[in-house]
Amino acid sequence: MEKISNAKIGQIALVVKDAEKTSKNIASLFGLEESPYEMIGEYELANTKYKGKPTPGKAKATFYEMGSINLEILQPVGGPSTWDDFLKEKGEGLHHVAWYVKEIDKVAEMLESKGMPLIQKGNWDGGQYMYFDSSKQLGFILELLQTDD
To answer: What range does the domain containing 60 cover?
Structure first.
């Protein structure tokens, strides 16, 4: 496999200092109802691993459906994670762009062979995700999403 094929962009994510403030601003600007918040990450719930090791890293998150793209707002709230490191090193901004794929392990292997190391992965009820450091090649972190259905 040399390319990601039959994949669609599913998400753009921002890492911010204050998810509630950002969410209120987005909802107001686009005339949307403010979305509910949830905690994501947490090794016990999501089997999250950061740089190959289990982590209690988590984030306060909210999501907005904006056409065919899901906008994710992430506020790191503790523990080692790509979200926390990003905020400390770069400040607020675009964290990742995510693609839905069908064969996540094969695509992951291909990305790593192209010098994009896996930095964080985990599960959610209904799927799994993987973040790759593609900042040298693409200017952002690339996320793969695979749903169970």
So the answer is: 8-147
Q: Is 22 left (phi over 0), alpha (psi -120 to 50) or beta?
A: alpha
Structural domain contains residue 1 = no
* Edge-first strand listing for the sheet containing 58-66: 38-41, 58-66, 69-76, 8-15, 93-100, 141-147, 127-132, 118-124, 49-50, 53-54
CB 107 within 8 A of CB 1: yes
Reading the chain (149 residues) residue by residue, the pLDDT tens digits are 567 776 788 999 999 999 999 999 999 999 999 999 998 877 667 788 999 999 888 999 999 999 989 999 999 998 899 999 999 999 999 999 999 998 899 999 999 999 999 999 998 888 999 999 999 999 999 999 999 87
